[in-house]
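Throughout our pipeline, every protein is held as a single compact record rather than as scattered files. The remainder of this section carries one protein's record, kept here as part of the documentation.

===
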Amino acid sequence: MTNQEAAYILDPETTRQALAPYALDCQARMAVVNEACAVAANALRETGWISIKDKMPPTGVRVLVCRKTRSGKVVEPGIAGFDGFFTVPVGRTKNVTHWMPMPKAAEG
C-alpha cells in the first residue's frame, strides 16, 4: 500500500468511499485499515524531525538538517561527520538542531 492509498483510506473526507468495497466484510475492512495505519505510522517515523540530542544520523549519510543561523532557521541537506560537525552547502557547522532522512524521489 502506498502513502497516498493509506491517506485516502484514513482521510475522513474519503474513508467511506475508500472502504465501500469492504462494506460486507468486517475482517477485510479492519485489515485494510490496519495496513493503512501501519503505512501512515511508518511515513510519520520517516518524515519526523529528530533532535540531535536524541539521536545522531549515521556518519557519512546525507540527511536533511535544520540549523540555527543569525537570521533564523534553515533547512538544507547535510552530512554528519564523526566529530559532531555537519557538512552543509556553506561549509561545516555544529549549529544543527534536528535532522531527518532524505525523502524518496518523486514517482513519475
